[in-house]
Amino acid sequence: MSVIKQLTARKSVAAINQEIASAPRLNRVLGPVTLTSVGLGAMIGTGIFVLTGTVAAQQTGPSITIAFLIAAIGCGLAALCYAELAAMIPISGSAYSYTYATLGEGLAWFVGWNLALEYLMSAAAVAVSWSGYVVNLLAEIGLTLPPALTNAPLGKQADGWLGPTGALVNLPAVLIVAALSWLCYIGVKESTRINNIMVVIKIGIIVLFILVGMYFVDTSNWQPYLPPNTGTFGEFGWSGVLQGAAIIFFAYIGFDQAATTAQEARDPQRTVPRGILAALLIATVLYVVMAAVMTGMVPYDQLNVAAPVAVALDAHPELFWLGLPVKIGAIMGMTSVILMSLLGQPRIFMAMSRDGLLWPAMERVHPKYRTPHVATVITGVVAAVIAGTFPLDVLGELISIGILLAFAAVCAGVLVLRYTSPDSVRPFRVPAAWFICTAGVIVCLAMTFALPPDTWRRLGVWTAIGVAIYFGYGYRNSRQRRAAG
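Above: the chain sequence. Below: its structure as tokens.
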């Protein structure tokens, strides 16, 4: 098989569904409410508790609500496409498997490798934020941890490259990743039960903050709603809104988590699309309203901190009683995001291993816990190393560009399958597919170009590593290649 032919070789929908039937069985225990909770657990965390403030202060001002809506539109277009493909192909590989069925092995590898940017980097990035909140909370009760053990040893310099900070390791971030990886190892049912509890708590805290904070909104803080551009692209003005939308896209990452657990869902053709769309809708409403309240409670230029919600509360001393619940809610929110990210990535590795593109050990299922235990351990170790080493701003930008490219591929894939597999059963169909799929590709790709230039450099390094692994192992061991003789 020639290189070009193999890179463009596709797996039929029928072949993928046959693999689902013959693969080692995972526990089908997840219903529509739990799948929605999985999506919310993966979404509501650092994006709303941290990035809302930094994006408002640096890129958008009060018009961060517009940035949230633009990002939501891009996600909504992709979510509809995810829903159609998830109903057609209810497999744990998510966007990777969808791309394999539509655009071929080469792009499928690229998407799968970039999904690792989403899940691995998301788990690491949120662990860094989690560390910051926990360290702050411990300091309030008199327990101070040394800075050398609570900060990243690498930091982003003025030229965009990374340099040493003098710290040794972000130890709390490493420990939380390790603890939650163990939870994912012992079972999806246990993981989702704990996630459900944390989702209820964090949504309750967010709603409480909104209901109380709206009485302390000063509308003068919303003026000007769209601050003028400073002369630099991405700093206020409409370019700031676009760059803010690209960065804040990080807050929406996770609605597709329901697709990665499709093989553990009951009646996945119906429940997975519902879980995807419900999680996105609920999160969008919470994000927009909370951003409006936060920027109304305090001038946006004061929110460029790691805990902007705390700044909004501190500006109104009479709300002192809300400080501790909000911090606990933030920690709960971030914990569930880390947990769901660590739950999703091993299932994508398992799908890639099943296709021969990664080592066979990755698809092993634990005989007792019925989880992809080897892939879970590898995911946990890599995420812990990244969380202990890199700062939040670098990780957040990498996550956004990786998932935006994957979303664009999924949107394109729906259109391709409409022509290459028109007779396949589609329990859910994207309405006006030509418009929605094309718009999804355009919006997602446009937001990648709004990201800072150094993000593309890091993506180039990540892609080069992925290409080396593919041609060093996956190309020679691909099951498509073996099937072609």
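The chain has 19 helices and two strands.
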